[in-house]
Amino acid sequence: MSTLPPRAGRRCHNAINPLHSTVYFSPDLGKELGELGIDDSNAAYFAARSAAMGAVGPGTVTATFYNFSHDLVARHLPAVWSVASPQAVLDARLRATDTTLRRLLGEEVIASPELAEAAGLALRAAEGCTRHARPLYAAHADLPVPEQPHLAYWHAATLLREHRGDGHLAALLAAGLDPLEALVSHTATGKGMSPRWVLATRGWHRADWDGACERLRERGLLDAEGELTEAGVALRSELEETTDRMDAAPYEHLGAEGVERLTELARGFLFTAASAGAFPADLIGKG
Questions:
Q1: What is the rounded CA–CA span in Å between residue 228 and residue 231?
Q2: If we measure between CA atoms, which residue out of 63, 52, 59, 55 comes closest to residue 83?
């Protein structure tokens, strides 16, 4: 029996996760990895997010990232590890995180007691995460916690993001949604990446997208106009509820008062970052 208000953990995640994601949209990450010799944006993303697992090959990344074309992943892995070691990439990612957060939040926020408080709350929540069947979380949980509060907050956000993400992939698999069907159905909710962003960054082609739409229509999840049917809406809702159940432990561990405070603080940081241009304007949408 949960001790938290309904969807409290999801609301907290939705406030924390986007600020974490800013680093992967940041030119600072490309600059840091470019100095290591990793110039391709896809190679940089695969390396930066998978480096905690070591010098893994394309199969591991395709499995744990779920919604990327394996052909795209294999184009860059394991070759990227001949350019820079996983530890060098992790160090570069942390430097990029420092630069990005200072630019988006400002030095006053970086030095604030509120950010230090948020870091403590997020790290406490992460104490409730579990490693089993959660490879991306488990790999990041083995990394040291940075000393500076803004970097500790980002590290904790990484743990919470990957913990929920690993569980969400299990829910997608159980629902019978392949990688592109998952993307198409999420986009159809109006809360996922736009088709243009998916096709530009995930390695899929328009024919792949259209094929996924047709499969979803055959299952009665998508209508002729590309909108979710009643069954499709129900499936996406069930996916999130299932993910909530598998991701409840960190927020139960933190407790209702802590979750409410962390959500409040995280929303404030996110608003500041978004106002500073943290995200591409056309990232989310159905068009």
A1: 8
A2: 55
Q: How far from 31 is each of 34, 70, 187, 279, CA to CA, in Å?
A: 5, 26, 30, 17
What's the start-to-end Cα distance of the chain, in Å?
40
- Rounded to 5 degrees, φ, ψ at 284 are -105, 140
Condensed to tens digits (0 to 9), the pLDDT of residues 223-281 reads 999 999 999 999 999 999 999 999 999 999 999 999 999 999 999 999 999 999 999 88
Cα Rg for the chain, rounded, in angstroms?
Answer: 19
**pLDDT grade, residue 282 (50/70/90)?**
confident
CA distance 270 to 42: 25
Per-residue pLDDT, 276: 95
